Amino acid sequence: MTVLALERPLLAAVAVAAMAPSVAMGAEAAGACARDLTQYRLQTWSVDDGLPLDTVNAIAQTPDGFLWAGTESGLARFDGHTFERDLPGLESIAEVGPFVEAMVVDADGNLLVGTGANGLLVVDASGVQVLHSVQRPVDAVTATSDGRVWFGVRGEGLLVIDAPGAPARRVTGDGDGLTTVTALAPRSRGGVWVGYPGAGVYHADVSGLHRVADVDTLDALQVEAVLETDDGALHVAAREGLYQLLDGTVTRDEPVQSYVVSLWADAAGTLWGASAGHGIFRRCGDVVQRLDQRVGLPLDSVMQVLGDGAGGAWAATGGGGLAYLHPAVATPFTPHQGLPTQPMLPVLATRDGALWAGSFGGGLVRIVDDSVEVLTVEDGLPSDFVFSLAEDADGSLWVGTRAGIAQLVDGGVVATLDADDGLPAESIASLLHDGKRLWAGTISALVGIGADGVHVHAPEVGDYDGYIVNLHRDSRGVLWIAVDGGGVFMLRDGRVNRAPFQDRLESTLIMGFHEAPDGALWIATGRGLARWDGESVSRVSVQHGLVDPMLFSIIDDGAGAMWVSGNSGVSRIALDALDAIVRGERDTLSPRRFTRADGMPSTETNGGFQPTATRDTRGRLWYPTMAGLARFDPAAIDADHRVPEVYVVRMQAETVSLNPATPPGAIGPRPAFIDVRFSAPEYRDTHRLEFRYRRPRIDTDWYRTADRQALYHQPGPGRFEFEVQARIGDGAWSESATVTLNVQPHLLESPWFWLLVILVVAGVGVVLVTWRYRVYARRREARQQAQKLEAVGLLAGGIAHDFNNVLAVVMSGTESIMDRLPHDSTARRDAEAVLSVAERGAALTRQLLTFSRQRPGDREWLDLASEIRGLEEFLSRLLPRGVELHMGLDPAAGRALIDRVHLQQVMLNLVTNARDAMPEGGRIEVALWATDGGACLSVGDQGSGIDPDVARRLFEPFFTTKSEGRGTGLGLAVTYGIVQGAGGRIDVRSRQGGGTVFEVFLPTQRGETVSNTAG
Known about the structure:
The chain is an alpha+beta fold. Strands 65, 66, 67, 68, 69, 70 and 71 form a 7-stranded mixed β-sheet that branches. Helix 5 packs antiparallel against helix 6 (826-851), helix 6 (826-851) packs across helix 11 (971-981) and helix 9 (900-916) packs antiparallel against helix 11. 16% of the residues lie in helices and 38% in strands. It is built from 11 helices and 71 strands.
């Protein structure tokens, strides 16, 4: 094996081995296009998201930011969240018809729509108007700065509307025989460019239609789109390919595939195009970038490409729905840029501006100016599994792999080190060069490598008990050692010991360190962040707002923020907020989280090796993920100050739909609710869009929401004002969108009505006084009734006690007599009759005792469903033929604290009551179900119902409607007392001719163990 050279060799460095082909664009292209199309974030929407059809014929974006999609099923407006087809004030949008062929926005921001059967239409704030009615398809439309509208009607040729309200006229001239227009675009010298299928390109102005002279090459093209760019070049998209006409010369763009159907130029003048079978392309200098189905586009057949004015582009596909691509916050590097397909592990930015990254089996990656190269075992690496990276003071790169360490100089391997050279283990998870020696962490040892050889440093007490995944030399010279599962160790004065704060950490999973400018040591652990200031440990966890408890890396971006990574993405945290948490001045953080939705190849980052994140010479941060690398530019993120435009898009006052753009002067009176819907067109950061709303002069605070709706119940009469704002993340709030309505008062709220009331009151004063006296009399009667009930209860209790004693003697004596009489004697039968009557009396005394609440019973926790089901056979025997008992019991209803005999008595009273209500037969429904905090037991019959006057007295003691000898009037009163004693309530619902239902609500316990008896 080759001994590692710890200083740069004096000999010339070994030449770099042949690497994978670079996929970066040239210098000219890099200036025109900041990143490759495959590094754009791609979002898609289909019919599953509300799009009318997955085949989108045309798209346009109006100045308010809304995107319009035209399909064979009609037109829809999109705000990034919802496709709307029924718009207040634009109910006539249905008149656009099912076949939308072409769309464009005119200078006034109005939407011009060419349809397949309803002619040329315009959509503005007032609705939909017909500009030209024709039964043939309008295939192309455009508008020029002079206010003219040009459009092509299939079979009729080119037409123009010279001024608002003027009729359309046919444009004639050189191409009189051409009746089908497929492309239109404004011309810088006035008029428009016109494309024809099989006849090439013409131009038209107020004087007529003119052939383009001396360009025979264009004459036979099947033209699909035309576009003149700021440099004066005319670009022609045709089925045969892409052509350019400049200064009378026609050239064919050879790298572009054939059948180009759409063109667009962005603000920088970069040309974009769409192909009917090859996706999207963009010309960046001499390089043509492509985006097709192989790299995420939903379909290669693209009907139109359109820019959104914010650096993004829309693609309308012929069966794959809508696609939107834009440069996201994170720039991804994936196999599309030349990276290995394996997960990426360590990342290191070196002083020469290069970015190095190791992969799990794919070798070592070098990125310079976005050019990607790959180094593997064929180039001298010990293994393609690269776990750690470090740079020394001379610029050498040290690479820790599964099979040892390699030293690279100028990108080439010059030496390796493995077990034969003294390494105790060849799998190197961490590397650090401190200027004097190279430190390596393995699964079992800390290794120091210097001019004096390889030395193993073991703890003085115990073992590391895990992989050494991170090493950090602090400003005081202490080497900190992070062990995955073993905690923190420190090497000081040649001795390795556990960190003094180890027992104060909440986790032994340690992934990394970061030293703050004040010398404090931040530690990434399996339970969040820890901070050691030399004396005490402070902790920041998910309870404080951290997104992920398991952290892999900590980086200070130098701009006032700390960045951490974990399984749930990357988070940026303000340093002043972290310091406030440590000082105990605040309880929560508000980190900004970055995920795949922000452009990362994968939300899940990787850890357990060194470095797990790096900051390059331009201040950009790099993170390894399961699907590639993610690069963030903090300066660009801070420079993103986009403020959304917010709109009130829909209002509903009870059943009346209102147009927020032209609200009515007054509504009402007293609508039950006003429903306000609002929107802010946003496509890049829809997930970070936040709204706040209020009613000025009524609400002192704003109400924040991620929803797009505010609902006001029973708004009062008078002026109804509504105000809403929007923002992206923690950015600036937008200007307010406001709506004002006047809610008419109800008749009872009108001043003239109350004047009339005052006059009437003066005439009916005597009636009011009489009414108040009657109310007083009823209340007095109620108090007297309560006092009587209390007295009756006391009397009933006393009588019941005495009577019960008498009955006990009678029953005991009777049973004694019966024991001495023959079973067939007449005297025994008489004694049995006496005993039966005595037992009925005893039952009556039990009801009296229950009514008087002198017998509370032995309460215990009873499973209601089980207890009631156990009474089914007994209750059925009480029912005559023709009366059915049906039980529907929920086993999850829970347990109630009640006396078992009392529960049986409640069931007996309610079921027999239901039986007596159906002398002709019927069905008794017993149901039990769980409610919030309790259970409901209902017993219903199909009887004739209860008169309301009777219903009010149902629970009075001794009140009964049954004939003499059939009832005591105590059954429901006792039931009422039992339910109240158990902490519940009983309700009755009855309808004349519709039966009666008694509902008993009892408090219960569910899902936990309780003691069987009450304490």
